[in-house]
Specification:
Layout (H helix, E strand, L loop, with lengths): L8 H4 L4 E3 L5 E4 L2 E5 L8 E7 L1 H4 L5 H11 L4 E4 L3 E4 L3 E3 L3 H4 L3 H11 L10
Parallel strand pairs: 1-7
Antiparallel strand pairs: 1-2, 3-4, 4-5, 6-7
């Protein structure tokens, strides 16, 4: 991963859009998995978590329950070594499909694109 030696995970990674190696948007980073820190060592980021299984538990209990019923608990874990670059967006080294990302978003986008009135009209 390229970038500065210091990375503010909350400001520079969390809630940023993921872009795969083909420049396709494939989700939003909902949570960051950390490892270590128990023995006095610094915790380190080991994975990105994407999906309702990652953001649902952060909600108040009633909303978390409703989110689980509506959106499920699917959570995709992306190992930290898959990050190619952190910037305005977080770019990945692999294709979204390889990592199990973006299929629902793209299906929804295709359905919206097929709705009457959603096509671009030329003037």
């Amino acid at each position: 991963m390229s970038g500065p030696p210091y990375l503010d995970l909350c400001r520079q990674v969390l809630d940023h859009q993921l872009i795969d190696c083909e420049e396709l948007p494939c989700g939003t980073i909902d949570e960051i998995e950390l490892e270590g820190g128990e023995d006095g060592s610094r915790p380190r980021a080991v994975a990105l978590l994407v999906g309702p299984g990652a953001w649902g538990p952060r909600l108040p209990a009633l909303f978390a329950w409703m989110a689980e019923r509506c959106f499920g608990t699917r959570c995709t874990r992306i190992p930290w070594h898959e990050i190619a670059e952190v910037g305005e967006q977080v770019r990945l080294r692999s294709r979204a499909a390889t990592l199990g990302l973006g299929t629902t978003d793209r299906k929804l986008g295709l359905r919206i694109a097929k709705l009457p009135g959603s096509e671009k009209r030329s003037k």
